[in-house]
Amino acid sequence: MKAYSLRDIPPEILSEIFSFLDAKTLLVCSSVCHLWLNAVKSSPELQYMLELWSDGMVPGTSVSTHADALEVLYKRRRTWQRLEWTSKNTVEIESLIFCRAYELVAGLFIQQQRGPDFHTISLSDLVDNPQNARVTQSGGIELSNFEDFAIDPTQDLIIRFYAPEPAYLDCRTMSSHEPHPRANHPVFTFSLDRHPIGVFYIQIVDDVVGIFFPEPPFSFHLFNWRTGLTITEVRDEQDIPFPVAEFHLLSSRSYIFAHAEHDTGSESGQIDIFTFDGDCPNSPINIAILELPPVNPGVWITNMIIQAGPFCANAISGIPFTKSNQNRIYMFLICYDVTKWCRLFVHWRWLHSYVIDHVREKTGTAVVPWNEWGPQNSRMLLGENHQWNRHVHGERIVLACENRNFVQVYDFGIIPQRIALVPQPTAQSEVVLHTESSTLVWDDIFEDTVTTSLPYMHTVRLLSEEYDLFLMDQDRILAMNTAEDSNHLMTAYTF
To answer: Per its UniProt record, what InterPro entries does this chain match (predicted)?
Structure first.
Protein backbone atom coordinates (compact mmCIF):
# COMPACT_ATOMS: atom_id res chain seq x y z
CA MET A 1 0.00 0.00 0.00
CA LYS A 2 1.30 3.43 -0.93
CA ALA A 3 2.21 5.68 1.99
CA TYR A 4 0.62 9.10 1.76
CA SER A 5 2.02 12.33 3.19
CA LEU A 6 0.85 15.91 3.56
CA ARG A 7 2.50 16.66 0.22
CA ASP A 8 -0.10 14.51 -1.49
CA ILE A 9 -2.97 16.75 -0.37
CA PRO A 10 -4.08 18.88 -3.34
CA PRO A 11 -3.49 22.64 -2.79
CA GLU A 12 -7.19 23.44 -3.12
CA ILE A 13 -7.99 20.96 -0.31
CA LEU A 14 -5.27 22.46 1.88
CA SER A 15 -6.70 25.92 1.26
CA GLU A 16 -10.17 24.70 2.21
CA ILE A 17 -8.82 23.23 5.47
CA PHE A 18 -6.89 26.42 6.28
CA SER A 19 -10.00 28.55 5.74
CA PHE A 20 -11.39 27.19 9.03
CA LEU A 21 -8.44 28.62 11.01
CA ASP A 22 -8.18 32.03 12.60
CA ALA A 23 -5.65 34.41 11.06
CA LYS A 24 -3.04 34.06 13.78
CA THR A 25 -3.02 30.25 13.51
CA LEU A 26 -2.95 30.54 9.72
CA LEU A 27 0.16 32.69 9.95
CA VAL A 28 1.85 30.00 12.06
CA CYS A 29 0.84 27.29 9.56
CA SER A 30 2.29 29.27 6.65
CA SER A 31 5.72 29.10 8.32
CA VAL A 32 5.69 25.30 8.71
CA CYS A 33 6.87 24.41 5.20
CA HIS A 34 6.98 25.69 1.60
CA LEU A 35 3.97 23.57 0.65
CA TRP A 36 1.75 25.21 3.26
CA LEU A 37 3.20 28.65 2.55
CA ASN A 38 2.43 28.30 -1.16
CA ALA A 39 -1.09 27.08 -0.38
CA VAL A 40 -1.72 30.25 1.63
CA LYS A 41 -0.08 32.54 -0.92
CA SER A 42 -2.02 31.05 -3.84
CA SER A 43 -5.40 31.57 -2.15
CA PRO A 44 -6.86 35.13 -2.36
CA GLU A 45 -9.28 34.18 0.42
CA LEU A 46 -6.50 33.18 2.83
CA GLN A 47 -4.34 36.15 1.87
CA TYR A 48 -7.30 38.44 2.48
CA MET A 49 -7.87 36.83 5.87
CA LEU A 50 -4.23 37.41 6.85
CA GLU A 51 -4.06 40.97 5.59
CA LEU A 52 -7.36 41.90 7.28
CA TRP A 53 -5.98 40.58 10.56
CA SER A 54 -2.71 42.43 10.01
CA ASP A 55 -4.61 45.73 9.67
CA GLY A 56 -6.99 45.00 12.54
CA MET A 57 -10.02 44.80 10.24
CA VAL A 58 -13.05 42.54 9.93
CA PRO A 59 -15.13 41.88 6.77
CA GLY A 60 -17.78 44.48 5.96
CA THR A 61 -21.12 44.25 4.20
CA SER A 62 -20.28 45.16 0.59
CA VAL A 63 -19.87 42.18 -1.75
CA SER A 64 -16.77 41.70 -3.92
CA THR A 65 -14.28 38.98 -4.75
CA HIS A 66 -11.48 38.32 -2.30
CA ALA A 67 -8.96 39.37 -4.93
CA ASP A 68 -10.70 42.73 -5.44
CA ALA A 69 -11.12 43.31 -1.71
CA LEU A 70 -7.45 42.46 -1.17
CA GLU A 71 -6.39 45.09 -3.72
CA VAL A 72 -8.58 47.69 -1.99
CA LEU A 73 -7.01 46.76 1.35
CA TYR A 74 -3.46 47.08 -0.03
CA LYS A 75 -4.28 50.46 -1.56
CA ARG A 76 -5.79 51.69 1.69
CA ARG A 77 -2.72 50.62 3.62
CA ARG A 78 -0.37 52.46 1.24
CA THR A 79 -2.37 55.67 1.23
CA TRP A 80 -2.68 55.81 5.03
CA GLN A 81 1.00 55.07 5.49
CA ARG A 82 2.03 58.19 3.57
CA LEU A 83 -1.21 60.13 4.17
CA GLU A 84 -1.83 60.20 0.42
CA TRP A 85 -5.60 60.73 0.35
CA THR A 86 -7.53 59.99 -2.82
CA SER A 87 -10.01 62.88 -2.57
CA LYS A 88 -10.45 66.20 -0.80
CA ASN A 89 -13.87 67.81 -0.24
CA THR A 90 -14.93 70.86 1.74
CA VAL A 91 -18.32 71.47 3.36
CA GLU A 92 -19.74 74.22 5.54
CA ILE A 93 -20.44 73.30 9.17
CA GLU A 94 -21.41 75.02 12.40
CA SER A 95 -18.39 76.13 14.42
CA LEU A 96 -17.48 73.40 16.92
CA ILE A 97 -17.07 76.12 19.52
CA PHE A 98 -20.66 77.31 19.16
CA CYS A 99 -22.58 74.12 18.35
CA ARG A 100 -24.31 72.30 21.21
CA ALA A 101 -22.79 68.92 20.42
CA TYR A 102 -21.25 66.87 17.62
CA GLU A 103 -20.45 63.23 16.83
CA LEU A 104 -18.37 61.36 14.26
CA VAL A 105 -19.28 57.67 14.00
CA ALA A 106 -19.56 55.17 11.11
CA GLY A 107 -19.00 57.73 8.36
CA LEU A 108 -21.52 60.26 9.73
CA PHE A 109 -20.64 63.70 11.07
CA ILE A 110 -23.58 65.05 13.09
CA GLN A 111 -24.02 68.43 14.75
CA GLN A 112 -26.84 69.63 16.94
CA GLN A 113 -26.68 73.37 16.43
CA ARG A 114 -28.13 76.24 18.43
CA GLY A 115 -31.53 75.66 16.85
CA PRO A 116 -33.76 72.56 17.12
CA ASP A 117 -32.28 70.67 14.15
CA PHE A 118 -29.67 67.98 13.70
CA HIS A 119 -27.38 68.39 10.68
CA THR A 120 -25.98 65.12 9.36
CA ILE A 121 -23.21 64.91 6.77
CA SER A 122 -22.69 61.55 5.09
CA LEU A 123 -18.94 61.63 4.50
CA SER A 124 -19.05 58.99 1.76
CA ASP A 125 -21.73 60.98 -0.08
CA LEU A 126 -19.51 64.03 0.24
CA VAL A 127 -17.25 62.30 -2.31
CA ASP A 128 -19.78 60.44 -4.48
CA ASN A 129 -22.92 62.57 -4.27
CA PRO A 130 -22.05 65.94 -2.66
CA GLN A 131 -25.42 67.61 -3.34
CA ASN A 132 -27.13 64.99 -1.13
CA ALA A 133 -24.41 64.66 1.51
CA ARG A 134 -26.01 67.04 3.99
CA VAL A 135 -29.36 66.30 5.63
CA THR A 136 -31.20 68.52 8.12
CA GLN A 137 -33.56 66.70 10.46
CA SER A 138 -35.69 67.98 13.29
CA GLY A 139 -35.33 65.93 16.44
CA GLY A 140 -38.06 67.50 18.56
CA ILE A 141 -35.43 68.84 20.96
CA GLU A 142 -36.45 70.80 24.06
CA LEU A 143 -33.58 73.25 23.85
CA SER A 144 -33.85 74.48 27.42
CA ASN A 145 -33.05 70.99 28.72
CA PHE A 146 -31.08 69.23 25.99
CA GLU A 147 -27.35 68.86 26.74
CA ASP A 148 -25.69 66.24 24.51
CA PHE A 149 -26.15 63.02 22.57
CA ALA A 150 -24.36 59.79 21.59
CA ILE A 151 -25.01 57.58 18.55
CA ASP A 152 -24.47 54.13 17.10
CA PRO A 153 -25.62 54.29 13.46
CA THR A 154 -25.18 50.52 13.09
CA GLN A 155 -28.06 50.14 15.60
CA ASP A 156 -30.01 53.16 14.27
CA LEU A 157 -29.61 54.49 17.82
CA ILE A 158 -29.36 58.00 19.24
CA ILE A 159 -29.37 58.57 23.01
CA ARG A 160 -29.97 62.14 24.13
CA PHE A 161 -29.26 63.59 27.57
CA TYR A 162 -31.63 66.06 29.21
CA ALA A 163 -30.79 67.82 32.44
CA PRO A 164 -33.76 69.02 34.42
CA GLU A 165 -34.16 67.41 37.82
CA PRO A 166 -34.44 64.50 37.57
CA ALA A 167 -32.14 64.16 34.56
CA TYR A 168 -32.89 61.57 31.91
CA LEU A 169 -31.56 59.71 28.87
CA ASP A 170 -33.88 59.22 25.90
CA CYS A 171 -33.30 56.28 23.49
CA ARG A 172 -34.58 56.87 19.96
CA THR A 173 -33.95 55.85 16.38
CA MET A 174 -31.71 58.05 14.26
CA SER A 175 -33.91 57.54 11.21
CA SER A 176 -37.20 58.77 12.67
CA HIS A 177 -36.47 59.97 16.24
CA GLU A 178 -39.19 57.63 17.45
CA PRO A 179 -38.62 55.62 20.67
CA HIS A 180 -36.20 52.83 19.78
CA PRO A 181 -38.08 49.55 19.20
CA ARG A 182 -35.42 47.51 21.02
CA ALA A 183 -35.65 49.63 24.17
CA ASN A 184 -38.11 48.16 26.67
CA HIS A 185 -38.00 51.45 28.60
CA PRO A 186 -36.73 54.20 26.26
CA VAL A 187 -36.30 56.79 29.06
CA PHE A 188 -33.92 56.48 32.05
CA THR A 189 -34.28 59.01 34.85
CA PHE A 190 -31.69 59.69 37.54
CA SER A 191 -30.79 62.36 40.07
CA LEU A 192 -27.74 64.59 39.56
CA ASP A 193 -27.80 66.99 42.54
CA ARG A 194 -25.78 69.53 40.59
CA HIS A 195 -26.13 72.87 38.86
CA PRO A 196 -24.74 73.81 36.45
CA ILE A 197 -24.13 70.47 34.71
CA GLY A 198 -20.45 71.09 33.86
CA VAL A 199 -18.30 68.46 32.16
CA PHE A 200 -19.73 65.02 31.36
CA TYR A 201 -19.31 62.19 28.88
CA ILE A 202 -21.75 59.70 27.29
CA GLN A 203 -20.70 56.42 25.66
CA ILE A 204 -22.63 53.60 23.98
CA VAL A 205 -21.27 50.06 23.60
CA ASP A 206 -23.76 47.57 22.18
CA ASP A 207 -26.60 47.27 24.75
CA VAL A 208 -24.98 49.47 27.40
CA VAL A 209 -24.84 53.25 27.83
CA GLY A 210 -22.75 55.02 30.45
CA ILE A 211 -22.78 58.67 31.50
CA PHE A 212 -20.01 60.09 33.67
CA PHE A 213 -19.68 63.38 35.59
CA PRO A 214 -16.09 63.95 36.76
CA GLU A 215 -16.61 67.27 38.56
CA PRO A 216 -17.69 67.25 42.23
CA PRO A 217 -20.00 65.74 43.21
CA PHE A 218 -18.59 62.95 40.98
CA SER A 219 -21.15 60.44 39.69
CA PHE A 220 -21.34 57.60 37.18
CA HIS A 221 -24.48 55.91 35.82
CA LEU A 222 -24.58 52.72 33.76
CA PHE A 223 -27.73 51.40 32.06
CA ASN A 224 -28.73 48.50 29.82
CA TRP A 225 -30.76 50.55 27.33
CA ARG A 226 -32.46 47.50 25.82
CA THR A 227 -33.78 45.89 29.02
CA GLY A 228 -34.27 49.12 30.97
CA LEU A 229 -32.00 47.93 33.82
CA THR A 230 -29.95 50.35 35.92
CA ILE A 231 -26.68 48.43 36.28
CA THR A 232 -24.95 50.81 38.66
CA GLU A 233 -24.96 54.33 40.05
CA VAL A 234 -21.65 55.29 41.63
CA ARG A 235 -21.10 58.48 43.63
CA ASP A 236 -17.86 59.66 45.19
CA GLU A 237 -19.18 59.98 48.72
CA GLN A 238 -20.68 56.48 48.59
CA ASP A 239 -18.31 54.19 46.75
CA ILE A 240 -14.99 55.89 45.88
CA PRO A 241 -12.64 57.26 48.55
CA PHE A 242 -11.18 59.86 46.16
CA PRO A 243 -12.27 61.48 42.89
CA VAL A 244 -12.25 59.64 39.57
CA ALA A 245 -10.73 61.75 36.82
CA GLU A 246 -12.03 59.76 33.85
CA PHE A 247 -14.16 56.84 32.74
CA HIS A 248 -14.34 54.78 29.55
CA LEU A 249 -16.13 51.59 28.54
CA LEU A 250 -13.77 48.78 27.48
CA SER A 251 -16.58 46.57 26.20
CA SER A 252 -20.26 45.96 26.81
CA ARG A 253 -19.30 44.24 30.07
CA SER A 254 -16.24 46.13 31.33
CA TYR A 255 -15.00 49.67 31.93
CA ILE A 256 -12.06 51.61 33.31
CA PHE A 257 -11.69 54.46 35.80
CA ALA A 258 -8.60 56.67 35.83
CA HIS A 259 -7.61 58.01 39.26
CA ALA A 260 -5.21 60.78 40.16
CA GLU A 261 -4.41 58.98 43.43
CA HIS A 262 -3.67 55.44 44.59
CA ASP A 263 -5.65 53.56 47.22
CA THR A 264 -2.45 53.78 49.25
CA GLY A 265 -2.58 57.59 49.28
CA SER A 266 0.16 58.07 46.68
CA GLU A 267 -0.37 60.72 43.99
CA SER A 268 1.14 58.58 41.20
CA GLY A 269 -2.28 57.63 39.81
CA GLN A 270 -3.84 54.38 38.67
CA ILE A 271 -6.17 52.77 36.13
CA ASP A 272 -8.93 50.62 37.62
CA ILE A 273 -10.54 47.89 35.49
CA PHE A 274 -14.09 46.74 36.29
CA THR A 275 -16.32 43.98 34.96
CA PHE A 276 -20.08 43.78 35.40
CA ASP A 277 -23.14 41.69 34.54
CA GLY A 278 -25.26 43.61 32.04
CA ASP A 279 -28.41 41.90 33.32
CA CYS A 280 -27.81 42.36 37.04
CA PRO A 281 -27.89 45.56 39.15
CA ASN A 282 -24.99 46.53 41.42
CA SER A 283 -22.73 43.99 39.71
CA PRO A 284 -19.46 45.89 38.90
CA ILE A 285 -16.33 44.28 40.34
CA ASN A 286 -12.89 45.94 40.47
CA ILE A 287 -10.68 43.21 38.99
CA ALA A 288 -7.39 45.06 38.41
CA ILE A 289 -5.47 48.17 39.42
CA LEU A 290 -2.71 49.26 37.05
CA GLU A 291 -0.37 51.67 38.79
CA LEU A 292 1.10 54.58 36.85
CA PRO A 293 4.80 55.67 37.02
CA PRO A 294 5.78 56.61 40.60
CA VAL A 295 6.18 60.35 41.14
CA ASN A 296 8.36 62.36 43.52
CA PRO A 297 6.97 63.54 46.86
CA GLY A 298 4.80 66.61 46.47
CA VAL A 299 4.02 65.93 42.80
CA TRP A 300 0.34 65.65 41.82
CA ILE A 301 -1.63 64.50 38.83
CA THR A 302 -3.95 67.46 38.30
CA ASN A 303 -5.94 66.15 35.33
CA MET A 304 -6.51 62.97 33.34
CA ILE A 305 -8.42 62.54 30.07
CA ILE A 306 -9.12 59.29 28.20
CA GLN A 307 -9.56 59.37 24.42
CA ALA A 308 -10.54 56.37 22.27
CA GLY A 309 -12.57 55.74 19.15
CA PRO A 310 -16.28 54.84 19.10
CA PHE A 311 -17.68 51.32 19.27
CA CYS A 312 -20.09 50.06 16.60
CA ALA A 313 -22.26 47.08 17.50
CA ASN A 314 -22.52 45.91 13.88
CA ALA A 315 -20.57 46.22 10.63
CA ILE A 316 -20.82 49.58 8.89
CA SER A 317 -22.93 49.10 5.78
CA GLY A 318 -21.61 49.65 2.27
CA ILE A 319 -17.89 49.19 2.90
CA PRO A 320 -15.68 46.11 2.31
CA PHE A 321 -14.13 46.02 5.79
CA THR A 322 -14.49 47.62 9.20
CA LYS A 323 -12.03 48.29 12.00
CA SER A 324 -12.47 45.65 14.69
CA ASN A 325 -13.71 46.91 18.06
CA GLN A 326 -10.87 44.92 19.62
CA ASN A 327 -8.17 46.77 17.68
CA ARG A 328 -8.23 50.02 19.59
CA ILE A 329 -5.73 52.30 21.26
CA TYR A 330 -6.52 54.18 24.46
CA MET A 331 -4.79 57.52 24.92
CA PHE A 332 -4.51 58.75 28.51
CA LEU A 333 -3.70 62.46 28.65
CA ILE A 334 -2.06 63.05 32.03
CA CYS A 335 -1.21 66.45 33.50
CA TYR A 336 1.39 66.66 36.27
CA ASP A 337 1.54 69.75 38.49
CA VAL A 338 -0.88 71.82 36.37
CA THR A 339 1.36 72.47 33.35
CA LYS A 340 3.23 69.29 32.33
CA TRP A 341 1.22 67.08 29.96
CA CYS A 342 2.10 63.68 28.53
CA ARG A 343 0.27 61.03 26.53
CA LEU A 344 0.16 57.40 27.68
CA PHE A 345 -0.90 54.97 24.93
CA VAL A 346 -2.21 51.54 25.95
CA HIS A 347 -3.75 48.96 23.62
CA TRP A 348 -7.23 47.58 24.26
CA ARG A 349 -5.94 44.00 24.17
CA TRP A 350 -3.70 44.63 27.19
CA LEU A 351 -6.40 46.27 29.28
CA HIS A 352 -8.92 43.60 28.30
CA SER A 353 -6.49 40.77 29.07
CA TYR A 354 -7.24 41.34 32.76
CA VAL A 355 -10.94 40.80 32.04
CA ILE A 356 -10.14 37.53 30.27
CA ASP A 357 -7.89 36.40 33.13
CA HIS A 358 -10.55 37.22 35.70
CA VAL A 359 -13.26 35.30 33.83
CA ARG A 360 -10.93 32.31 33.37
CA GLU A 361 -9.38 32.16 36.84
CA LYS A 362 -11.92 34.00 39.04
CA THR A 363 -9.12 35.81 40.83
CA GLY A 364 -9.43 38.77 43.18
CA THR A 365 -8.33 42.32 42.44
CA ALA A 366 -4.87 42.28 40.84
CA VAL A 367 -2.66 45.20 41.87
CA VAL A 368 0.00 45.61 39.17
CA PRO A 369 2.96 47.96 39.76
CA TRP A 370 4.00 50.14 36.83
CA ASN A 371 7.27 48.30 36.23
CA GLU A 372 5.39 45.01 35.77
CA TRP A 373 3.14 46.23 32.96
CA GLY A 374 3.98 49.71 31.67
CA PRO A 375 7.47 49.47 30.12
CA GLN A 376 6.53 46.63 27.72
CA ASN A 377 2.85 47.37 27.08
CA SER A 378 2.58 51.12 26.69
CA ARG A 379 4.22 54.17 25.15
CA MET A 380 4.51 57.48 27.03
CA LEU A 381 5.28 60.62 25.01
CA LEU A 382 5.24 64.34 25.67
CA GLY A 383 1.96 65.98 24.71
CA GLU A 384 -0.50 68.78 25.26
CA ASN A 385 -4.07 69.05 26.49
CA HIS A 386 -6.50 68.00 23.73
CA GLN A 387 -10.12 67.56 24.78
CA TRP A 388 -11.78 67.55 21.34
CA ASN A 389 -13.52 64.22 20.92
CA ARG A 390 -13.03 61.88 17.92
CA HIS A 391 -9.41 62.56 17.02
CA VAL A 392 -8.72 58.90 17.93
CA HIS A 393 -10.09 56.03 15.85
CA GLY A 394 -9.12 52.37 16.02
CA GLU A 395 -5.38 52.32 16.54
CA ARG A 396 -4.66 55.75 15.06
CA ILE A 397 -4.47 59.25 16.52
CA VAL A 398 -4.48 62.41 14.39
CA LEU A 399 -3.09 65.68 15.76
CA ALA A 400 -2.23 69.16 14.58
CA CYS A 401 1.40 70.22 14.55
CA GLU A 402 2.95 73.38 15.96
CA ASN A 403 3.30 74.45 12.34
CA ARG A 404 -0.35 74.50 11.25
CA ASN A 405 0.58 73.60 7.68
CA PHE A 406 1.23 70.01 8.80
CA VAL A 407 -0.82 67.09 10.08
CA GLN A 408 0.55 64.10 12.01
CA VAL A 409 -0.78 60.58 12.60
CA TYR A 410 0.37 58.07 15.23
CA ASP A 411 -0.44 54.48 14.21
CA PHE A 412 -0.28 51.81 16.94
CA GLY A 413 -1.86 49.15 14.73
CA ILE A 414 1.40 47.99 13.20
CA ILE A 415 3.07 44.60 13.29
CA PRO A 416 6.75 45.47 12.74
CA GLN A 417 7.62 42.01 11.36
CA ARG A 418 4.99 42.41 8.61
CA ILE A 419 6.08 45.85 7.42
CA ALA A 420 8.07 45.10 4.27
CA LEU A 421 9.41 48.61 3.72
CA VAL A 422 9.02 51.97 5.46
CA PRO A 423 8.50 54.69 2.82
CA GLN A 424 11.38 57.09 2.28
CA PRO A 425 10.80 60.78 3.16
CA THR A 426 9.44 62.99 0.39
CA ALA A 427 8.91 66.72 0.02
CA GLN A 428 5.40 66.26 1.42
CA SER A 429 5.60 63.47 3.98
CA GLU A 430 7.88 61.64 6.36
CA VAL A 431 7.23 58.21 7.91
CA VAL A 432 9.19 56.94 10.92
CA LEU A 433 8.79 53.46 12.47
CA HIS A 434 9.43 53.41 16.24
CA THR A 435 10.22 49.92 17.50
CA GLU A 436 12.90 50.78 20.05
CA SER A 437 12.17 51.84 23.60
CA SER A 438 11.91 55.54 24.37
CA THR A 439 12.52 57.38 27.63
CA LEU A 440 10.79 60.28 29.32
CA VAL A 441 13.13 62.07 31.71
CA TRP A 442 11.36 64.45 34.10
CA ASP A 443 13.59 64.50 37.17
CA ASP A 444 11.25 66.94 38.90
CA ILE A 445 8.22 64.68 38.29
CA PHE A 446 9.12 60.98 38.23
CA GLU A 447 11.11 58.95 40.73
CA ASP A 448 12.93 57.21 37.84
CA THR A 449 13.28 57.55 34.09
CA VAL A 450 10.09 56.30 32.40
CA THR A 451 10.91 53.80 29.65
CA THR A 452 8.17 52.49 27.32
CA SER A 453 8.26 50.40 24.15
CA LEU A 454 4.84 49.89 22.47
CA PRO A 455 5.72 50.08 18.73
CA TYR A 456 4.12 52.71 16.51
CA MET A 457 4.48 54.49 13.19
CA HIS A 458 4.56 58.29 13.02
CA THR A 459 3.64 60.07 9.78
CA VAL A 460 3.81 63.82 9.16
CA ARG A 461 2.31 65.35 6.00
CA LEU A 462 2.48 68.87 4.55
CA LEU A 463 -0.88 70.49 3.72
CA SER A 464 -1.77 73.32 1.37
CA GLU A 465 -3.86 75.04 4.08
CA GLU A 466 -3.49 75.73 7.78
CA TYR A 467 -5.64 73.94 10.38
CA ASP A 468 -5.62 73.78 14.17
CA LEU A 469 -7.94 70.78 14.68
CA PHE A 470 -8.24 67.35 13.12
CA LEU A 471 -10.78 64.57 13.68
CA MET A 472 -10.73 61.13 12.08
CA ASP A 473 -12.68 57.99 11.34
CA GLN A 474 -11.84 54.76 9.54
CA ASP A 475 -11.52 56.23 6.06
CA ARG A 476 -10.81 59.94 6.41
CA ILE A 477 -9.26 62.85 8.26
CA LEU A 478 -11.44 65.91 8.91
CA ALA A 479 -9.63 69.25 9.14
CA MET A 480 -11.01 72.53 10.48
CA ASN A 481 -10.18 75.68 12.46
CA THR A 482 -11.66 76.55 15.83
CA ALA A 483 -10.93 80.28 16.10
CA GLU A 484 -14.10 82.36 16.46
CA ASP A 485 -13.23 84.46 13.39
CA SER A 486 -12.35 81.48 11.15
CA ASN A 487 -14.60 80.35 8.32
CA HIS A 488 -16.83 77.48 9.37
CA LEU A 489 -15.58 74.94 6.88
CA MET A 490 -14.60 71.29 7.27
CA THR A 491 -12.27 69.60 4.77
CA ALA A 492 -12.57 65.83 4.44
CA TYR A 493 -9.43 64.02 3.23
CA THR A 494 -10.63 60.58 2.13
CA PHE A 495 -8.36 57.54 1.74
So the answer is: F-box-like_dom_sf (IPR036047), F-box_dom (IPR001810)
